[in-house]
């Protein structure tokens, strides 16, 4: 019985100066919390480890989400609100209902939740979604059928809108967002070019995920390789990286290119240093002369899209048109190291921590 | 009779190294050209002097316009094609038909044309539009009812789309684009804040054009003044300037702000130097975190909008809802100095050269 169990939690112990380390976390074990009216007790099965979590470790973002859905608004506030030092580290989870005071959820239901880095969590059910995955494993709800997949979907449907024959380049292409972006580009009949770190990841993109080309950002002649992989320039640059990757893609942008700005891992992780003379006016001039659109993308702004996303993506995944790969780390206590690994690009698939599955 | 007249033309004599001077031009007088089949002979009444002309002096742009209209495509190619050294300087004109082999145009018709800096021009009629201005003077066809006005209109209707209560900031606010942007913001119920150079221009924006506030970019505390003029931040930043003006507006951009990038006079004119450390990643991060859209704007991409623009703008101008001011320079030979004046922001109204009116 959960009430007799202890609850192990990973707390944020200190804010990272720039790049985080496991020493920024502390593990505690205390009592499983009591379940109130309309609440459920969740047992965490899987944690998702995602690069944006560095932002939450550093503090809250100075803004909030505009969204038409309470569930999405609450989720967004989870992402944007940051993590207070001394509290449980945040993050999306797949959990099982082990006790329920809410008639919408029954004991045994497996749900998409936002319990953070702990074994048990009481949830007020405002952000819970019961998983209905058909034959697809529930872990996909943290990847292609979760926030990362929906991020890719929203960016492609609302900003990028590639046409057949166009070239779509995505950075961090083997990440859970990037891999969906590239596969959606292929579904749209576009040329999909992925940027990833290392030859192994590039082979995987080309051989297993069907990208037309993949370019290793660690190569010494990375920019030339990217240009060679894009003989007709770039019509969509889906930005997850920033830094040197941005500067390689930027001069290849075609007229009327669309640039969803989805992530800047290079900046978050502190591996990118802003050096050299300011090039902002050069960027604005290219936007002007080439009539390029660059737009920040935050999935929680697009709650309206969720039903369409879940339906279409589940179909694609079930049909094998969208593939995914998972890297699994065992044990809650290994979550801090897993986050460091994600930020340094060490994982190949979507990184999950198996807590109790 | 025109055939007995001589044709005075202003040629581009050399490309400017950075900032242009009258010495880059040369005046010649030769025969009025012969009119071929389906062509007309135009007598130039008015020349428009516009900042983008520095681009044409420097050479052709590396791209072409996507447009559904032949007339617009030809016009766009005029803008983008650049000017060959030794040929007539390009530019929009208002002209009178003085000889016609085309049954669509009669002698005496006043037309919007693209004759460039010369007294007479033979025109194949592919870009001509007969002016039907009601009670509005024909010179407005080079300003609020011409390419500058349509640029503002397209940017506001397609990218900026301000709502009532939002704050719209426009740089080069007294220019023929910026002044329409601010007045359209007011029509939409938004707060209009203009940036201009000098106290006189600012007073004119506030007192005559109905801007809610105007900020002098030459003030020592310009950035603080802009912030004070935008107590609820900036929802639309209509960029005509670049450089220091961009950097003052950038930190004020709200979530979901729209940034039509329409011009970068500071960059074209060489008055802006890119100094300091590269801030491109900082810009991309704000786009991301604040879900801002920045998009290059080129009026000729939006030919479809022309009938709607002409109808709505003519109504606004006739009703006095959109006002404009013109600065007139007399004589074709003064066009080079006039262009230098536009690039240094010396004019207050739309700068026109009266050639034969």
Give structural notes:
- Two copies of one chain form a homodimer.
- Chain A starts with 5 loop residues before the first strand and ends with a strand.
- Chain A is globular.
- The mean pLDDT of chain A is 91.
- In chain A, helix 3 packs across helix 4 and helix 3 (147-160) crosses helix 10.
- Chain A is an alpha/beta fold.
- In chain A, strand 11 (234-238), helix 7 (244-249) and strand 12 (253-261) form a beta-alpha-beta unit.
- Chain A has helices at residues 53-58, 70-81, 147-160, 178-187, 199-207, 222-229, 244-249, 265-268, 280-290, 306-318, 335-343; strands at residues 6-12, 25-31, 40-48, 93-100, 110-113, 120-123, 129-130, 167-170, 191-196, 213-216, 234-238, 253-261, 293-296, 326-330, 350-354.
- In chain A, the strands form three sheets. In chain A, strands 3, 4, 5, 6, 7, 14 and 15 form a seven-stranded mixed β-sheet that branches.
- The A-B interface holds A 61-64, 66, 239, 242-243, 246, 255-256, 261-264, 266-267, 272, 274-298, 301 and B 61-64, 66, 239, 242-243, 246, 255-256, 261-264, 266-267, 272, 274-298, 301.
- Strand 13 of chain A pairs antiparallel with strand 13 of chain B.
């Amino acid at each position: 019985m959960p009430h007799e169990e202890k609850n192990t939690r990973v707390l944020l112990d200190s804010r990272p100066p720039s790049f985080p380390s496991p020493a920024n976390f502390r593990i505690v074990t205390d009592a499983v919390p009591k379940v109130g009216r309309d609440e459920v007790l969740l047992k965490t099965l899987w944690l998702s480890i995602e690069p944006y979590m560095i932002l939450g470790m550093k503090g809250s973002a100075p803004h909030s989400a505009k969204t038409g859905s309470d569930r999405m608004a609450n989720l967004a506030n989870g992402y944007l609100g940051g993590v207070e030092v001394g509290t449980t580290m945040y993050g999306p989870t797949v959990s099982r209902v082990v006790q329920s005071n809410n008639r919408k959820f029954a004991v045994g239901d497996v749900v998409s939740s936002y319990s953070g880095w702990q074994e048990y969590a009481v949830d007020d059910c405002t952000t819970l979604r019961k998983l209905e995955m058909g034959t697809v494993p529930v872990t996909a709800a943290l990847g292609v059928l979760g926030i990362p997949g929906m991020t890719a979907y929203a960016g492609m449907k609302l900003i990028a809108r590639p046409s057949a024959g166009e070239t779509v380049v995505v950075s961090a292409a083997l990440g859970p967002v990037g891999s969906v972006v590239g596969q959606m580009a292929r579904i749209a009949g576009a040329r999909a070019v992925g940027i990833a770190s290392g030859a192994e990841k590039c082979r995987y993109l080309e051989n297993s995920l069907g990208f037309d080309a993949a370019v290793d950002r660690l190569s010494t002649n990375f920019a030339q390789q990217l240009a060679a992989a894009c003989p007709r320039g770039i019509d969509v640059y889906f930005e997850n990286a920033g830094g040197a990757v941005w500067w390689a893609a930027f001069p290849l942008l075609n007229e009327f290119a669309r640039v969803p700005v989805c992530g800047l891992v290079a900046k978050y992780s502190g591996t990118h240093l802003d050096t050299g003379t300011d090039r902002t006016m050069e960027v604005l001039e290219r936007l002007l002369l080439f009539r390029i659109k660059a737009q920040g993308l935050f999935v929680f702004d697009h709650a309206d899209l969720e039903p369409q996303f879940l339906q279409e993506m589940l179909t694609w995944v079930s049909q094998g048109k969208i593939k995914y790969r998972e890297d699994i780390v065992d044990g809650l206590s290994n979550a801090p190291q897993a986050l460091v690994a994600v930020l340094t690009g060490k994982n190949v698939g979507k990184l999950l921590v198996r807590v109790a599955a």
